Amino acid sequence: AQSVTQLGSHVSVSEGALVLLRCNYSSSVPPYLFWYVQYPNQGLQLLLKYTSAATLVKGINGFEAEFKKSETSFHLTKPSAHMSDAAEYFCAVTRTGNQFYFGTGTSLTVIP
Amino acid sequence: DAGVIQSPRHEVTEMGQEVTLRCKPISGHNSLFWYRQTMMRGLELLIYFNNNVPIDDSGMPEDRFSAKMPNASFSTLKIQPSEPRDSAVYFCASKFLLGHTEAFFGQGTRLTVV
Q: What residues in chain A have their Cβ under 8 A from chain B's Cβ atoms?
């Protein structure tokens, strides 16, 4: 079975501070992992993806994530938060490329 | 490409009425997904198609829900009869079937059943 767990449904950071959003996966075979962002009243937009190449993946808007097999984690980070980063973030896993299993989401608030 | 196009963006209907949501996937994509998003249950996969064929509809909540994909450029999700608990945002997404590529999402249809 495949699934992802996002720890912390709400995260608040100050503008300019480090953003860390946590995602742990469970998969019986090497997974393919994705981070999506959802702005209010919008669909999901891909931030970055891990597909078994480099373990450190860089995405759009300064975000990056590191695949750590030993920790079954794929945490999302950004060195310096911007007000425009306030959104809902979803981690997703797939093995086959067909069925995506999404986490419950983490709402990021950026405090001025 | 204009991306995945869903219509309508908003739908308000009375309980018992039939509702049809529409989706046009990105040209060339041959996998299509329907998701439902609610505060309580998050993102749920309802059904997905490969090459216009339904592959897994185990996420469809009840027989009141049905989905079709008559051709590669169009899909519908129908609810008949609708109930207040069907109120949610419904997303359509598409991707290339082969490879572990990402899915592209539409803007969603916000359904309110009163």
A: 32, 34, 36, 41-46, 49, 51, 90, 94, 97-100, 102-105
* A98 with B4: Cβ contact below 8 A: no
Within 10 angstroms of residue B28's Cβ, the number of other Cβ atoms is 10
Q: What does the pLDDT look like over B53-83, one tens digit per residue?
A: 999 999 998 899 999 999 999 999 999 999 9
Percent of chain B topping pLDDT 90 = 87
Q: Give chain A positions within 8 Å (CB) of B45.
A: 99-100
**Residues A26-59 as b or e (16 or more Cβ within 10 Å = b):** ebeeebbbbbbbbeeeebbebbbbbbeeeeebeb
- Interchain proximity A104–B42, CB inside 8 Å: yes
Residue pLDDT, tens place only, A29-85: 778 899 999 998 889 999 999 987 788 999 999 999 999 988 999 999 999 999 999
Which has the closest alpha carbon to A89: A3, A1, A10?
A10
Quick check: A44 and A61 in contact, CB under 8 A?
no
